[in-house]
Structure formats: structure tokens, C-alpha cells
């Protein structure tokens, strides 16, 4: 019987072009407000999806043998017409299916791996959401599935919460889906999430992780009073959880500092009801500081290898040391 060869996973920094695309879309979305364009929500949502596409591919399907699909999804996302977002989502879903089929060839036993159902369902939810565009509330669902799913790991490591996977994610999945049909459930998503992942060994030691979890709980609850569920999601959940998981996964040495961006994003939501003209400045500063913390990933070598330059330098120093 011929012994099957185990493929080597060669990652690359697939998320970096998507981060640049997200910033470009968010810049267009921000400019659309003073210019009185009607595209503000569309560009802001495209930016969120660009960030999502980049991170799910980096963390779950980073191998270079999916490069053609990575580039295809990027190209289709660049075209700001919602039909192309459907095609981009299909390319992402194909990437996921191919990656899952290839698990055995990488030497993994798929049956023994934890299944992050929230994350893995998000590309297919993205296809449905873009097919039904311009339903902006529906476009939030795939993003919620991904960011709540991926942060299960971040919270379990940094706050010693319960690492829920597979069927144990069902309560989170249900409240996300039901919140589309019954938006009044949205403010309680953070509470339901916390109750699902909570265990007695919960610790408050990591300020950044605790701040992002607190934002997930408090900002949606505040939306019961202030209203505007969409911005409660974008500023209190989407931004803060992306800041958290991206910094932790790419620049862990700066993770403790991301608390500043989290607080600024939360303030942007609260202040928009009192000082709308200046509240956005807080979010812009939060984004710029986040980019500063992950800046070591923007080198060509970092993109080629999928590693922060600081990690690359550390590996080089360790090899050269006697």
C-alpha cells in the first residue's frame, strides 16, 4: 500500500491586502458623510467584509496552494458592486471546502479537531446576505458569526473562559440568527455570549481581552437606550473584536496595548449621540493606533511568510545565537 505524502502548509500574509482594502473602503465611507453621498453604509460594510475575508483566510485557510482563490476573492471585493461581493463570497466558501477536504493531506485527523461552527458557517451566510442586498441588517449576521466564533479562542486563552466549539456554540448561533428576525434580541448578544463561555476560572488579568468582552456586553445593552443597533455593532462589537483578534494573532507582543483602540471605539459610539461631528475622530484614531500596533506585518517579507517582522527577526536571532 502506497504511503500518502503529507503536504506542507506554506502560509502567506493573505490578510494584509484585505486590511488595506478595508481602510480604503472605510476612508470612502467616512468621506461620504461630509460630501453628502448616500454610500456611507455601503462602503463601511464593504470595509468590514474586507477585514473579515482577510482574517478568516489567514487564520483558517492560509496555505499558498489556495493563492488563486485568495486573489479571486480580493479582486471581486475590490469591485464595489454587490453582485461581485456574491462572487467573492462564493470564492471564499470554495476555499473553505477545499481547505477542509485537504485537512487529511496535511496530517490532521478532522474528527479530532475542534469544529468552530460559527466561523465555518459564516462564508455561506455571506453568500445569502449579499444575495439579499440591500438588507443591511442581514449583512451583519455573517460578521457576527465570524467575530464571535474566532474570539472564543482569544477569550479562552486570555480570560480562561470555556472554549466552546461544535454543538456547544448553538446558543450563540441561535441568538445571532434570531436577532435578525427579532432585532430586540441584538442588545443581549453579548450577555448570551458571556454566559455561554463563562466558567468559574474566569480571570480579569488581561486588560485588552477583558475590555473587548466588556465592550461586547455593554455597548449593545446601551443601544437599548441610545438606539442605533447598527452602529452599536460596528463600533462596539465589530471594531473592538477585530482589533482584539487581529492584534492577538499577528502582533501578540502588542496585545496589551490594544485596549486604547477598544476604548476609543466605544467612546465613538457613545459620543455620536452628543457630539456627532467629532465622535468619528475617536474611531479614526482607534483605527490608526490599531494599524500602528500591527505595523510589523506590513513588510513584503511579512506578507510573503505570513509572519510579523518582529517574529522573523527573533527567529533569526535564535538561530544565530550560540
UniProtKB/TrEMBL annotation:
Keyword Membrane applies: yes
Organism superkingdom: Archaea
Name under which the protein is recorded: Putative integral membrane protein
TM regions (residue ranges): 12-33, 39-55, 67-94, 114-133, 140-159, 171-195, 207-226, 232-251, 258-275, 281-300
Record keywords: Membrane, Transmembrane, Transmembrane helix
Keyword field contains Transmembrane helix: yes
Amino acid at each position: 500500500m502506497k504511503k500518502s505524502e503529507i503536504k506542507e502548509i506554506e502560509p502567506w500574509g493573505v490578510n494584509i491586502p484585505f486590511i488595506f482594502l478595508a481602510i480604503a473602503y472605510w476612508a470612502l465611507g467616512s468621506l461620504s458623510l461630509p460630501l453628502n453621498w448616500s454610500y456611507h453604509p455601503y462602503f463601511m460594510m464593504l470595509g468590514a467584509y474586507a477585514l473579515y475575508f482577510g482574517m478568516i483566510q489567514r487564520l483558517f485557510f492560509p496555505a499558498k496552494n489556495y493563492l488563486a482563490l485568495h486573489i479571486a476573492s480580493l479582486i471581486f471585493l475590490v469591485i464595489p458592486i454587490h453582485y461581485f461581493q456574491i462572487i467573492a463570497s462564493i470564492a471564499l466558501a470554495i476555499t473553505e471546502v477545499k481547505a477542509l477536504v485537504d485537512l487529511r493531506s496535511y496530517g490532521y485527523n478532522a474528527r479530532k479537531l475542534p469544529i468552530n461552527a460559527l466561523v465555518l458557517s459564516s462564508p455561506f451566510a455571506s453568500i445569502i446576505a449579499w444575495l439579499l442586498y440591500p438588507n443591511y441588517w442581514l449583512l451583519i449576521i455573517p460578521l457576527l458569526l465570524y467575530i464571535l466564533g474566532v474570539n472564543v479562542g482569544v477569550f479562552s486563552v486570555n480570560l480562561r473562559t470555556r472554549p466552546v466549539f461544535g454543538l456547544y456554540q448553538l446558543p450563540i448561533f441561535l441568538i445571532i440568527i434570531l436577532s435578525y428576525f427579532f432585532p430586540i434580541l441584538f442588545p443581549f448578544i453579548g450577555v448570551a455570549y458571556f454566559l455561554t463561555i463563562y466558567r468559574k476560572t474566569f480571570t480579569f488579568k488581561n486588560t485588552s481581552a477583558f475590555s473587548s468582552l466588556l465592550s461586547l456586553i455593554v455597548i449593545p445593552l446601551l443601544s437599548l437606550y441610545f438606539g442605533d443597533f447598527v452602529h452599536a455593532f460596528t463600533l462596539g462589537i465589530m471594531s473592538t473584536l477585530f482589533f482584539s483578534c487581529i492584534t492577538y494573532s499577528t502582533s501578540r507582543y502588542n496585545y496589551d496595548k490594544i485596549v486604547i483602540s477598544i476604548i476609543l471605539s466605544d467612546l465613538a459610539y457613545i459620543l455620536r449621540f452628543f457630539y456627532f461631528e467629532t465622535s468619528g475622530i475617536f474611531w479614526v484614531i482607534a483605527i490608526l493606533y490599531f494599524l500602528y500596533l500591527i505595523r510589523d506585518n506590513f513588510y513584503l517579507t511579512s506578507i510573503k511568510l505570513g509572519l510579523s517582522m518582529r517574529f522573523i527577526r527573533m527567529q533569526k536571532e535564535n538561530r544565530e545565537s550560540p
